[in-house]
Amino acid sequence: MWTDVARRFEDAFRVVLFDHVGAGRSDLTAYDSRKYSTLQGYAGDIVEIGRELELADAIFVGHSVSAVIGALASMQAPGMFSDLVMVGPSPCYIDKDDYVGGFSREQVVELLDFLADNHLGWSAAMAPAIMGNAERPELSGTLENSFCATDPEIAREFATVTFLSDNRADLPSIEARTLILQCQEDIIAPISVGEYVHANIPNSQFKLLSATGHCPNLSAPDEVTAAIREFV
Predict the structure, then answer these.
(1) Active-site residue 186, yes or no?
(2) Catalytic member of 64, 74, 140, 165
């Protein structure tokens, strides 16, 4: 997911890439439904990686829900991350009161039911919608392959904890200097959500990219790289 961006920083930075437990080439036997029933479980893994590598004042770059997970990790281990780059973050996906997350609770439930009933069908249907950039179908193919490679039960549990999470109250406690990169035409994290994140993180910057869809790390690596370089 990050190859086209990460390699461009290897000349000047120590770059650390990892797969969340349950995804990619991670050890599936390490997956524990209880631990990963909240985003704090994933944040704890990041802190564990950081302590193993003796990180201090590092820069965490996270996409979508992983951006929020990185923010939680920065609060679990003060001093480990001095800067956060949040790409398409959302602290809450469900519309609540005057907050517009992009989905009604009923839509999220339908989404999760579809995933539980038909993992491959969900992947085929959702990848193009999430990726956008319909004129470049190879991008949604990459995302679909990533979805399909995940264990269906783990994918269902991860989607549940993601789409039902609400971390809005955590945003004001984020002390790290933060860059929020927002895409246009993003059905997962609309512009109003990015603006909300910016308004509620004290030391944050907001940048609206020209890129469209939810995965600019795949669709617009040049623009993402330039924005991060300007920030760091």
Answers:
(1) yes
(2) 64
Total domain count for the chain? 1
Q: What digits encode the pLDDT tens for the residues 136-156?
A: 888 888 888 888 778 889 989
The Cα–Cα gap between 115 and 191 comes to 26
Render pLDDT for 19-46 as a digit per residue (tens, 0 to 9).
998 888 888 889 999 999 999 999 999 9
Q: In sequence order, what are the residues at sequence separation of 6 or more whose Cβ sits closer than 8 angstroms to the Cβ of residue 201?
A: 171, 172, 174, 178, 180
214 is catalytic: yes
Provide the CATH number for the domain around residue 79. Answer: 3.40.50.1820
CB 68 within 8 A of CB 167: yes
Q: Are 180 and 206 in contact (CB under 8 A)?
A: yes
pLDDT at 156: 92
Q: What gap in Å lies between CA 44 and CA 75, rounded to an integer?
A: 10
Q: What are phi and psi of 38, to 5 degrees?
A: -135, 160
Catalytic residue among 20, 90, 119, 186: 186
Greatest C-alpha distance within the chain: 47
Q: CA-to-CA distance for 5 and 227, rounded, in angstroms?
A: 11
